[in-house]
Amino acid sequence: WLPLGWRGLKMSPPASFPPGSSGAWRTEIERILSIGRKQPERVFWLQRSDIMPPIEADVKSRIASAYRKINLLLHPDKTNIVGAKEALAKAASAKEFLEERLQRFSTTTGM
After folding, report:
1. N or C: which end of the chain has fewer CB within 10 A?
2. Per residue in 63-102, pLDDT tens?
C-alpha cells in the first residue's frame, strides 16, 4: 500500500511505510535523521540523477508532494515521537535546498 502520490516516484518508500505502529514511525524518523547533508534528495526518495541536468519537468512537483506527505506524517501536532520535530526540520531544509538547486539549474540551462 502506498499513498496515491508516491506511486509515481522512481524510488519507493520502504516496505514498512506507511507507519502502522510507532516502531515504523521511528524507523522513518531515523531514516530521515541518518541522511547526510550531502544527500538531501534521499529525504524524498529521489536519486542524485533526478536533480542533475537535464532535469525532468515533474521533479519539483514530486519533491513538493513527498514533502507534504512527510509533513503530514511528522508534524508535531500529529505525533509526539521523539525526533519527529528534528526530522521535519531536516525535511524542510532539504526541500528548500533542492528547490534552490532546481531553480539555479533551470535558469542556467534555460528550462
Report:
1. N
2. 888 899 888 888 888 888 888 899 999 999 999 999 898 8
The b/e string for 39-65 (b: 16+ C-beta within 10 A; e otherwise) is ebbbbbbbeeebbeeebeeebbebbeb
Contact (Cβ atoms closer than 8 angstroms) between residue 102 and residue 55:
yes
Name the DSSP class of 15. T
For residue 87, give every residue at least 6 positions away whose Cβ sits within 8 Å of its Cβ, in sequence order, or none. Answer: 28, 29, 32, 33, 70, 74
The H or E element spanning position 71 is helix 59-74
Cell of 82: 521523539
